[in-house]
């Protein structure tokens, strides 16, 4: 199968950045949340420590509204209004996701009130402020479910918890959190652990509930929610959302490339069930007559994986696509997911999951086998909810393919 190179207009290639465009209208719910966050920040700037938590499922626009909040904060911080409590404040937005960090910094380059230096990864921020003996005023954290909950010496984090360190270094911390997007033991968050940080400081929790990404009715969204939880419901029909299940992964890829030529921002994704190593070599996913390489590691590439036109010729993982929107997503359900006819459900086999790094550091994890299964289903949830206009599915397990096609 020969790869096909995507040729897109500038509008299509910049579609991911457009997601964060400050000219994009926020919903009434998002505007209310923005105002509530700004009020909380102003009210607690003189406190020693305050914590605001924004909760919302995938596709509710958490990153979009966070970017709008941060732009407002930095606009006020860089103004010369002596009556504004935010004037002259030192603020940062952190995200423990290299692809999302690229997106934020690309947006900053197009926004007069933002600087690329306003954005960083948590470990870099923590180590720099400890070294310089500095503190910040307001710190926003996107994808806070990716914050570390234990030391990671390989990545130069010596302490035990990212959030604990950030709270010690900032007066006000605002985090965006979704427990169903926890993907590793070393960032194994729970409601109880998060609640621990509410003690002894001013706290508030806000919620986003309206789904914006998946342009489908409630039946499709419910079907996706159920599938991500391991349940196969009746296959819904929706004229506004193109949902297909394939017997042939190569045909799925051919159809996805056609959609990509038409509208752009279509990518093939897979569960982490096929061998992949960061050794500079290409590693391939093979299913029948389908064969395509995993996404190549390009840490110095300025564009995020989802935005690069050449990545139509690759298969992305949960780590390259988390936080991004696609027009159409093709998703391969790999060998770790199989159909159990007795329970009429999707079962999980962690032994077939190739992301061994996700399960490193089991100490302190209650019921590690169940936690492994939860992490795999969380990753599935992320993959299934990337497509705005459509989702094309293929399952490695023949029984699961048959059940999905005849649901």
From TrEMBL:
Pfam family, one: SLFN-g3_helicase
Protein name: AAA+ ATPase domain-containing protein
Source organism superkingdom: Bacteria
SMART domains reported in the protein's UniProt record: AAA
Domain AAA+ ATPase per the UniProt entry, residue ranges: 48-300
Record-linked InterPro entries: AAA+_ATPase, P-loop_NTPase, SLFN_3-like_DNA/RNA_helicase
